[in-house]
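note to self: the first set is below, dont mix up w the second
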Amino acid sequence: DGYSHLSAYERKRLKNITENAKFFAALKLHESAARLNQLTTKRQSHVTKRAKPKKAEDEPARRRSMRLLRVEPQDVPLLESFSPAVVEQYPQVPVGPLPMVPEDQAENSKWTEAILSTWMRISELKAEDAEKGTPDIKRYQKSLSSMVLSEENIRKVVKARVCSMAIHPSESTILVAAGDKWGHVGLWNVSCGTEEGAHIFIPHSLQVNCMHFSPCNPAHLLSLSNDTLRCGDVTKAVFDEICRSEDTFSCFDFLEESACTAIVSHWGGDVAVVDRRTPGLSSELSVDIGFTRTRTVHVHPVNKHYFLAAGSVDVCVFDVRYLKAKGNKPLSSLTGHTKSVASAYFSPVTGSRVVTVCADDKLRHNNNTGRWLTRFRAIWDPKQEHCFLVGSMAQPRQIQLFQDTGNLLHSFCNVELLSSVCSINVVHPRQNILVGGNSSGRLHVFKDKC
């Protein structure tokens, strides 16, 4: 009667339990009977037992981050096993001018002298001013098909991931500079054709984010790392320091053909105006443009007072003449990006077009490189107003060339010789020469067949 609130099924079940308890009690199984009697009077509490902690010796070996160990991914397929690379330690580069002495000076001084003298010689030759134009697309596409990659035009030029590149404008000699994530700058005389054609210099302590040969004096190579902007002057054999900042640098571009002034961006979002003619290592003006992050800046090819800034989801055009410390408004904003923007550049002839790379994979282009590869930057071919190049995650590995309409015009590939992703690329301003850099410090040069 005391269980009238229970359902018929529960009362029947309770009756069975009680009868079983009496039966076991008659068998003098006291412990079982006591347990069953307990079930008839109260419900059993549900207690969750805590799992015993695993002993340290039972746990598998924890994976160590190769990135934190400063070990670069090798230029081999991921499924292929290889012994871990040896982590090298490099001293901090001091402030101020540095002699242009390569890492291997003691062993290869005559070869070093050869590459520096070549750089100086080709910088003294004045190239004829070729009129910028836009060649016929069919004729241009045919010329692309003649560019090939050969084994002698592949070389490991720097020791770590390629983060920036520049190509000398000389038409007689192919000289390429590459900067890596450890502050190294490699110079490679591709035309030399020997193992002694490449040498490594250490003008920076941190990642080299951007490089340019001076447009008015190609004997000057300017390189920007996280903390400093330097000018490698081969005529003086010195890496001069132009600007230094505690706010991390990300990119720079010249504001005039004389290359005396430059616009420099910071990862934190600000930009700065730098004048090489003024003494000291500070910028002339530091500017808040309202960005939370600025990855690239690029000056308009015709109207040099306009520059393009890109970062986060922002791509905006500013006028350097009206910049002030705070409260700057863009002249124009290119909207539509939904994820992080890696780069933005004006087209080379008129500047009427802008090509951007964004993690939202527009153009149906797979550009999500992950943390082990340098982020892609789409660059215009300086010889063609309507075409740009960008690395690709596609297999087989390739560098793709698009029209501004989004049409894929050509893919630079070689199944046997190109097996890695070329995130950073540079194109010669007058000749059919393309250089692609990968994440192991290796450069690949596509050029016309000899």
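second set (the one i keep forgetting abt)
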Amino acid sequence: EEPLLLAELKPGRPQQFDWKSSCETWSVAFSPDGSWFAWSQGHCIVKLIPWPLEEQFIPKGFEAKSRSSKNDTKGRGSPKEKTLDCGQIVWALAFSQWSSPPGRKLWARHHPQVPDISCLILATGLNDGQIKIWEVQTGLLLLNLSGHQDVVRDLSFTPSGSLILVSASRDKTLRIWDLNKHGKQIQVLSGHLQWVYCCSISPDCSMLCSAAGEKSVFLWSMRSYTLIRKLEGHQSSVVSCDFSPDSALLVTASYDTNVIMWDPYTGERLRLLHHTQLEPPVEDSDVHISSLRSVCFSPEGLYLATVADDRLLRIWALELKTPIAFAPMTNGLCCTFFPHGGVIATGTRDGHVQFWTAPRVLSSLKHLCRKALRSFLTTYQVLA
């Protein structure tokens, strides 16, 4: 089925600023439990929107509610939309998992007025190299992390809920922060020669992938913070990367119009997905209009979504070398799946967010067994 446009959010009013590159939506994110959506709508503003969207946005007959969002709001009053003014252009967003008990003590110590409940947080990466940490339920600013010398381009929390945050920056470094220790910087990873565009932590928390404006991708150990290997295969800058939910696969997207699927344990190249142009290219144009911007895995791990400069959102099944569906979208910059499936959110250069239907699938028993095994066994162990 072709993706259908479910809803579109646009910035409420035109901004008074006339800055270059200040209205883009560089990042969109769903909280891991699916109860919040964060949108960097440009001009320094992040909107925190309770999910599911209010009914005026959603066509009749489409049910996007997650069970958890109903349960979480019971007895506490429905959560309200929040506006976070970050004071700088926002490039990156990441939600934590629900924090562990030590994390709860930390926030309570900083803000005695914050009730002692598990605290969901949002990290925002800014134009001046700062990272601001917000409490989602209240919209309070909890921490300000300083260290990067240039734009913070991407952020990633460890999926284990340990409140370790990785940041990627145009200063060519990645930095590791421990929010349980007042946001202490515990490591700087250097080695990239270009701006770092993207960082992704494997769901088993063993590896970190980083993509810079280079043809190779770096894989780091999340235990020792050392470089494991470089993955070589792209012909131009790699700009986006994502691990499959079982950590067994890694996808990387590049300006060379290709997505490569890798085995991160062996470094083997498993598949190449080429973005062919559907329309004839513009005359006298040297620009790759199929240059990729973003790639992400679906939550069950059977599909990929990609956003490219040729004004298309594509959906791919892992077994096939051509997309199974297309949707027209102009100026796309980023994409992410709703954690319970069925919806893809995309952000655009005009500061808009669009929500699309995504394939709903019942995973086969074979896929579920493989996912269960691969979530704790490496390729080498499986082969042995």
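remember for set 2: The first strand starts at residue 5 and ends at 9.
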